[in-house]
C-alpha cells in the first residue's frame, strides 16, 4: 500500500483553503489560485480548491482549453483524495453488511478525503458533459455522479456515527456534508418527471425541502469552510433557478438574510454584489437593479468573464423595462466578447432591433439583416447536442426572412421564453408598459386584410395572445387572460410553425385554475399539455415548469408544505431566520449524541 505522506497538515490545508475562499470572494482571484496551486498535487484541500477555481473559469468561458485545464486539475485532485481515502479490506467490506461501521477508527485525513473526493467527482462529471460529444461521455458522467452520490452518503453516516472530539473539525466536515446532501436533493427534485423516473430507477431521489433545509443548516454554521458555498447555492436557487425553471417564488427573505451577512464579509465582492442586484431585479426594481449590476461589474477587472454575466443581466433589465436600444447594446457586447452562445446573443440583439423597426436607419436595417443571416453559422454543439435556445434562434432567423424581414413582438417572446412575466408582474407599471406595446401590435395585425395576410399570420397573432394573456393574468384580469389562452388552443390548427404556443397556453390555463384553487382541473390540463404535445421549441423548459406546478398541486392536495409531497421532514426543528451560533448547538442536543436527530438521520438517508 502506498504510504500517504504530505508535508501540508490537514488543519493548515483547511485554513489555507478558507483563506483562498476569502481572496476569491473579495475579487482577488489570481491570489486565490496562487495560494492553492503549489500544493494541489499533494494536499486534498489545495487540489479541490484549485480545481474548483478552474471549474468556475471553465463554466464561465465555455472555452475548450479552459475546460481541458479544469478537467485535468480535478482529475489530479481526485487522485490526491484517493491516496487518503479509507482502503477497506475484503473482510471489512463484507463486515459492513452485517455490523455497524466504526467511524471512530477513521483518521481525520480519511474522512475529509471522502468529502473532497465527492466534491471533485461532482465537478468532474459536469465538465465531462461539457467536453465530449458522445453518449459514452454521458454514461461516464453518470457513473461519476453515482460514485459521488454514494460518497456523500458515506459522509453523512460518518457525520452521524463518529464521536467528535473537536468542534472545529466537525463544523468544517458538517458544512461540506450538508452542502453536498442539500445540493443533490435540490438539483434532482427540480428535474422533469421522465428524468426523475430514470434516476429513481438507478437509486437517486430528491426532496426539495430537505435540500433547502440542509443548505440553510450549512449556511448557519458560522466560520465553516463551505458556508459561503451553501450561501451561493441558496442564492442561485432562490434568485435564479426558481424564476427560470419553475412557477413558484424564491424565498426573498432568506436571500436578503444571506446577502446582509455576506456583504459585511465581502463588501466589494463581485459575486454578492451581483446577487444583490439580482434580488432587486426579481422584485421588479429594474432601475435599481441596473445600478447595482453596474456596481458589481466595476468592482473588479481581473475576471472579464464575470463582466459578461453582468452584461446578460443588464440586457434583461433593459428588455423588461422596454429600453430596447440599451438592451441591444448589451447584447452586442456579449456577441463581441463572450464565447458561450453567439447565436443566442446575435438573436437577442436582432430581437431588440426588431422592436425598434420604425426607428431604424437603412444602415441599421442592413445590419439587422446581416445579423439574422449569420445566426445559423453561429450555432454550436455542446455535449453532442445543440442548445435549445440556439435551435429556437435559428428557426426564428429563417422566419425573419420568410415573412419579409420582420418578426412580431420578438423581444416579448423572449421574455416569455425566459419566464419573465412573473418578474414583470411584481410592479403593475412594468407589466402595463409591456401590455401597451402588445395592444399596439395586435391592432396592426388585425388591420391587415385577410387577402394580404402572410402564411405566418396566425402564428404571430396567437403569439400576441400568449403574451397579452400573460400580462392580463398578472393585472387582476384572470377571465380575460383565460380568453386569450383558450383562443390559442381553439385555433391550434391554424398554426404553421409555432406549435409551442398551444402547450404553453395550456400551462397558463393550468396556472389560472391553480390560483383559483381548482386543483384537479388544473392538474388535468397540465397532464394533457405534458403528455400530448411533443417536439416543439423549448420543450424541456415547459416540462420544468409543468413539473414544478404539478409538484405544487400535489403538495397542496396532500396537505404538506412546499415540498414535493414527501414527508420525512416532519421531525425537523424549525430554522431560525437570523444567523446564530446557537443554531448548531440546538441541533446537537439529541439523544444519540452525534449531532443531529435520529429522525433527521433517517430522513436524509431515505433521500440519499
Automatic annotation (TrEMBL):
Q: Which organism is it from?
A: Cherax quadricarinatus
- InterPro entries annotated for this entry? IML2/TPR_39, TPR-like_helical_dom_sf
Region span, Disordered: 576-608
Report the PANTHER family cross-referenced here. Answer: TETRATRICOPEPTIDE REPEAT PROTEIN 39 FAMILY MEMBER, TETRATRICOPEPTIDE REPEAT PROTEIN 39B
- What does UniProt list as this organism's lineage? Eukaryota, Metazoa, Ecdysozoa, Arthropoda, Crustacea
- Its protein name is Tetratricopeptide repeat protein 39B
Which Pfam families does the record cross-reference, listed alphabetically?
Iml2-TPR_39
Q: Which domain of life is it from?
A: Eukaryota
